[in-house]
Design brief:
Layout (H helix, E strand, L loop, with lengths): L12 E4 L13 H4 L2 E4 L27 E3 L5 E3 L6
Antiparallel strand pairs: 1-2, 3-4
Bound molecules: FE2/S2 (inorganic) cluster.
């Protein structure tokens, strides 16, 4: 099966463990409480669900256009007749 998923976010979701409900009850380790997890929201990470910095590739996208990315994360503008 194959599917097309559109992503319009250009930066990761940041999960701060100390802000997660109940996490402070699990540990008092300050290093762990301050730990952040960056989850990919652009769709290009090769290490999903984690952000690997690949979102830098989408920073030049223009509003109103739809882009596709090949296996090497090379950017292509999608033909408007398929949008
Ligand atoms: S948000 Fe996708 S790689 Fe960073």
């Amino acid at each position: 099966m194959t599917r097309v998923v559109l992503h319009d976010r250009d930066h990761p979701y940041v999960v701060k463990l100390e802000e997660r409900p109940g996490f402070k009850n699990l540990t008092s380790d300050e290093k762990l409480l301050k730990f952040e997890i960056h989850l990919c929201a652009c769709g290009l990470s090769k290490d999903k669900p984690f952000c690997d910095g690949s979102h830098a590739r989408v920073k030049n996208e223009e509003k109103g256009k739809v882009y596709t990315y090949d296996e090497q994360n090379q950017q292509h503008v999608m033909d408007p007749k398929y949008v």
